[in-house]
Amino acid sequence: MSGGSEPLLALDDLEVHFPLRKGALLDREVARVRAVNGVSLDIHAGETVGLVGESGCGKTTLARAAVRLLEPTAGSVRFAGRDITHASQRELIPLRKELQIVFQDPFGSLNPRKRVRDIVALPLRLHGVSKEVAAQRVGELLERVGLTREHAARWPHEFSGGQRQRIGIARALALDPRLVVLDEPVSALDVSVQAQIVNLLDDLQRELGLAYLFVAHDLSVVRHVSHRIAVMYLGKLMEVAPADELYARPVHPYTASLLAAIPVPDPAGANRRRGRGAPKQAVPPSGEPPSPIDPPSGCVFHTRCPRATDVCKTVVPPLRAFPGGRVAACHHPLNAA
Amino acid sequence: MSEPLLAVRDLAVSFETEDGSARAVDGVSLDLAAGEVLALVGESGCGKSVTALTLMGLTRGANTRIEGSARYGDRELVDASDAELRRIRGAEMAMVFQDPMSSLNPVMRIGDQVAEQIVAHEDVGSGEARQRAVELLGRVGIPRTEERAADYPHELSGGMRQRVMIAMALSCQPRVLIADEPTTALDVTVQAQILELIRELRDETGAGVILVTHDLGVVAEIADRVAVMYAGRIVEQGTVMEIFDDPQHPYTWGLLGAIPRLDLPPRGRLPTVAGAPPSPLQKPEGCQFRPRCPHAFDRCVQTPALEHRGGGAQQADRCWLTPEAKRELRLVEGQVGLASPEETLR
Question: What does pTM read for this prediction?
Answer without folding.
Answer: 0.87
